[in-house]
Amino acid sequence: LSAGAKMGCFTFIKVMMILFNLAIFLSGGTLLGVGIWVKVDGESFLKIFGALSSSILQVVNVSYLLIVIGAILLVIGFLGCCGAQKESKCLLMMFFSVVLIIFIAEVAAAVVALVFTGLAETLLTGLVTPLLKEKYGVNDTFTQIWNVTMTEVHCCGLNNYTDFNNSYFYQTHSSYPRQCFGVSPPLSHPHLRGCLLQGCFGQILKEIRTNAAVAGGVAAGIAALEIAAMAVSMYLYCRLDEK
């Protein structure tokens, strides 16, 4: 290619890099804002998006998750946008490094999720079950999240109804949560007292496996975008030496 064509290609890729990372920056700001909103006023968030609560996000703190993801996207968007705009090799290398670290972490997390599902269940049980015993029926937001989850996913507790044994709720009401009873049509494996045996973790895993192809496609798309972003940042980085 001629020098003019190379310069035109460099300029086009630079502009695309700026626009792409500007979109990432704005998305990160939006997620950060939503995360802060959920943290400050979780009840309003649940009233609006309660029907969407039947997901694995219900066993973690959604507000902190959104804040962390939003902050990471803000950093990535800032580094990529400013690095391309200012043609800064330092910022472009930092952008490349951050995306590479995230990519490696995602691959590691996928491997762990596939190989150590049992370990993940053990860790979740150790973390979430004590919270169910202590906070269910005490913390309104926590209780509402689990009520919606148990209703939508058709489950009781994380592992099963016994997660509520010796809990604050059971000691106060001498019964399991209403969401564990009286579901119509009747669900499989009712307890002798009419309580569901299946826990939410197992039900969520079934849903994830059912939609594994979709989840895998989304993950592959994200990985492809990350690889493309790293390749573009390296192209700009190397071309700056020629300039």
TrEMBL record:
State which residue ranges cross the membrane.
Answer: 12-38, 58-79, 91-116, 212-237
Name where it's found: Lysosome membrane; Membrane
What is the membrane topology noted in the UniProt record heading this document?
A: Multi-pass membrane protein
Which InterPro entries has this protein been placed in? Tetraspanin/Peripherin, Tetraspanin_animals, Tetraspanin_CS, Tetraspanin_EC2_sf
**Gene Ontology terms: cellular component:** lysosomal membrane; plasma membrane
Family matches, as CDD domains: uroplakin_I_like_LEL (cd03156)
List the PROSITE patterns: TM4_1
Q: Which UniProt keywords are present, listed alphabetically?
A: Glycoprotein, Lysosome, Membrane, Transmembrane, Transmembrane helix
* Primary localization: membrane
What does the sequence similarity comment in the record state about its family? Belongs to the tetraspanin (TM4SF) family.
Instruction: Give the protein's biological function.
Output: Structural component of specialized membrane microdomains known as tetraspanin-enriched microdomains (TERMs), which act as platforms for receptor clustering and signaling. Participates thereby in diverse biological functions such as cell signal transduction, adhesion, migration and protein trafficking. Regulates neuronal differentiation in response to NGF by facilitating NGF-mediated activation of NTRK1/TRKA receptor tyrosine kinase and subsequent downstream signaling pathways. Plays a role in the inhibition of TNFalpha-induced apoptosis.
**Subunit structure, as described in the record:** Interacts with SLC19A2. Interacts with NTRK1/TRKA.
Q: What is this protein called?
A: Tetraspanin
Which organism's genome codes for this protein?
Oriolus oriolus (Eurasian golden oriole)
